[in-house]
Amino acid sequence: MNTKDQFNETTYAMPRIGDTAPDFEALTTKGPIRMSEFAEGKWTVMFSHPADFTPVCTTEMSGFATRKAEFEALNTELLGLSIDSIHAHLGWVQNVREHTGVYFDFPIIADLDMKVSKLYGMLQPNESETAAVRAVFFIDPEKKIRLIMYYPLNVGRNMDEILRALDALQVSDKYKVAMPLDWKRGDKAIVPPPKSLDELNARLDDDSLEKITWYLAKKNI
Hints:
Blueprint (H helix, E strand, L loop, with lengths): L2 H9 L13 E4 L2 E4 L8 E6 L6 H12 L1 H6 L2 E7 L3 H15 L7 E3 L4 H5 L14 E6 L5 E7 L7 H17 L13 E2 L6 H8 L5 E4 L2 E4 L2
Parallel strand pairs: 3-4, 4-5
Antiparallel strand pairs: 1-2, 3-6, 6-7, 8-10, 9-10
């Protein structure tokens, strides 16, 4: 392993699904926060963007801002980040508000020292050494990372998919089911497959299920 590979491996380690969200303290546009104490009892969607005052990032942050009420309805707090100063963040927030009327009314981490970006694997050297990729971390109320999305610098995220995935995680937890392709609220969910012959026979006799085959069955929730 060469020196650069060692540097990348140790500096840009990525948290994994199921890990406890790495703790940190940071200054944000809403004041200082500590991750382990942020949004207590709620879900967190933490997302990074490459830089303030850039076109794609402006559309994305505006998307989070205009749909903030939908995240709140899902008991979720938003938390943004980029490798910019708090002054740059404040200037950008005000610039967008003046020109579009959209207000980024959620905390945005000022990560000039790249501490949080490195901690969460948001810096990916083959893409950029100094700008965070477009990462999204779904963190549950127990501070467990439940889903991770990564996008390159030049492709914006899909807000519908972020909200759909968040809703799917919460519904799956509540009803102990799994979600099929393209699931959205109101669709049937997949029930766990049987683990014994007794469970298999009970399933075959259960008229409340939509049975595609013995191991794939759906129900209304």
